[in-house]
Sequence to fold (173 residues):
Amino acid sequence: MDHDQPFESHIVLVGLMGVGKTSVGRRLARRISRPFVDTDEYLERQSGRSIPDIFEADGEATFRDLETAVLRELLARAEPQVIATGGGIVVREENRELLAASGARTVWLCARIETLSKRLTFSRTPRPLLSSDPDAVLRRLSLERDRFYREVANACVCVDGRNVAEVVEAVLR
Ligand code: S3P
Fold:
């Protein structure tokens, strides 16, 4: 496979909080010389507000509406991008349909809960859904969402015991 331009469509990374979608996406984009965009960062820049602020002031449903609008806009770009998504993007059926219809290569980054919670302990990104008992929340979200990640994904890459560079290579394989 030509690793300089491996896929003509967007590459979309999905998976739970803490799995490394943003770090992997950024490095992957550099590796294959493509634009990188993260749906949360894009939404924050576009709205001029932080994710925790949107959750607190307007509620999760409003955040999800904004998230869908961002996903739709990014997937419509003609130039193939690397897109890192927020962990909950797969919950809405509309988003799953958008992903399927876009022809993007969607990769599920998955990990053991222990790996996620260890990483999140050191993360500086504020995550409103993890304010209490992060392990229990991650376990519940995994139970709720894994079937959706599986549904949208063309491939699954396990990140346990791998660094960012190794995950990037696994995504390209
Ligand atoms: C969320 C994940 C977050 C962010 C928001 C909600 C979720 O993104 O979109 O806090 O529902 O799992 P990351 O997966 O990048 O942390």
